[in-house]
Amino acid sequence: MQAFIAARKVGTARPPQTNTDGPSSGGSFAMEKFATALEMVTEMKPEGPVFAARPHAAGRAARWFIKNFPGEVAYAYKANSSVFLLGALYGAGITQFDVASVAELEDAATIPGVRLHFMHPVKSRYAIRRAYFDYDIKCFALDTEEELQKIVEETEGAKDLELFVRISVPAKNSRVPLEHKFGVTGQKAQRLLVKTRQVADELGITFHVGSQTTTPDAYGMAFEEAKKLIVKAGVVVDAIDIGGGFPSRYTDSVPARLSDFIDVIKASMAKMPVTEHCRLICEPGRALVAEAESLIVKVDLRKSGNQLFINDGGYGALFDSAHMGFVFPVRLIREGLDPNEPLEPFEFWGPTCDSIDRMKGPFMLPRSVREGDYIEIGNIGAYGRALATRFNGYGQYADVILQDEPMYSIYAEELAPVARNA
Ligand SMILES: *Cc1c(COP(=O)(O)O)cnc(C)c1O
């Protein structure tokens, strides 16, 4: 594991994912550990934004999924490829990764003993060839006959392929629906299943209910759709990959319990027209890493009442807040803060010159927030770091590890002996 981390320090040292020379990290690979965000800002007084990873939270999430999900658990690499979190997931037992590009598979392939799934339904011919011949990847997704043809040609008619037909399913209570871009339905899907069966060693069906899906019935409906297609196509299916979509918790999005999702998935799987040997796979991104990373920002200006200009924004790790309206949990990090100070709604502006670099929130913070204060923005582990750009010269981050608990943890709630149905 140490060698893997050492290798990845070099391998992923490209901005902005794992920046090594951010303003406050002094050119060294900063992975200092602190008990809390307050301890970190007191000691480092960081000028730039800081990613504060809580690897123990990613490890806990992975262990929960491995224990409770009735099948195999892969991690969707795109959600966050921080070495700290990957290390924690791997350490907890995640050895399968869902990748979507040559860059991702090259990166993920440096992790020892991994099994990679190339689950993007549209891949370049070059990517297919590299994946199969250079990285020994057998597992591919597709949603058209054209893509099937590409896979057959570029693998030179390989006989050991695991091919997953991506079907389109309704996006119910999903914050980020995906069904319009990918997935095949109806007679086209039946035909594709039959054709894929003819060339695949293992035939799979896969779907994605949409990211941040807050109710488990979305999975129930997706299984129903898969079941209909299997029966109509009359094919033997060897694997079902239910994708990601599992929720995390945000200030404006409180999902059903994860165990309710597991219950629906077990009940649905039991009704599928497949044998007991059929593999069941999930590939969560968000749910495994969302609560395992915070962003610590500094207030550069308080303007006209409750508008805070902070040093990261919509072109940085707060893309989902600026463009999808996510309200992340926040707290003021200041020595000697009065815990009883009343909270007020604030909105954030990012550091770039663009007027869409705005996060409306509302973010509830103590009314005394002022220039120079630090704010922890929690649960940005999924798609925060991953979406940051270097626009306007911003988007450079220092990295630290925090040992305290995330601002919200759906896993701490799952593991709590009481407080259920409260
Ligand atoms: C993005 C993606 C995932 C992960 O989705 P989450 O909503 O983050 O869990 C899984 N599988 C595929 C194919 C994806 O594109």
User: Count the helices. How many?
Assistant: 13
Enumerate the spans where pLDDT stays under 50 for 5 or more consecutive residues: 6-28
Gyration radius over CA: 22 Å
CATH superfamily of the largest domain: Alanine racemase
- Predict the CATH topology of the largest domain: TIM Barrel
**Biggest beta sheet summary:** 9 strands, mixed
> Structural class, from secondary structure content?
alpha/beta
- For the termini, the CA-CA separation is 41 Å
Q: Provide the helix percentage.
A: 25-40%
- Which geometry do the CA atoms define? elongated
What percentage of the residues does DSSP assign to strands (E)? 15-25%
Counting DSSP E segments of at least 2 residues, the number of strands comes to: 19
Overall pLDDT, averaged? 91
Q: What is the CATH C-level name of the largest domain?
A: Alpha Beta
Secondary-structure arrangement, i.e. CATH architecture of the largest domain: Alpha-Beta Barrel
Number of domains: 2
Task: Write out the distinct hetero groups bound to the structure.
Answer: pyridoxal-5'-phosphate
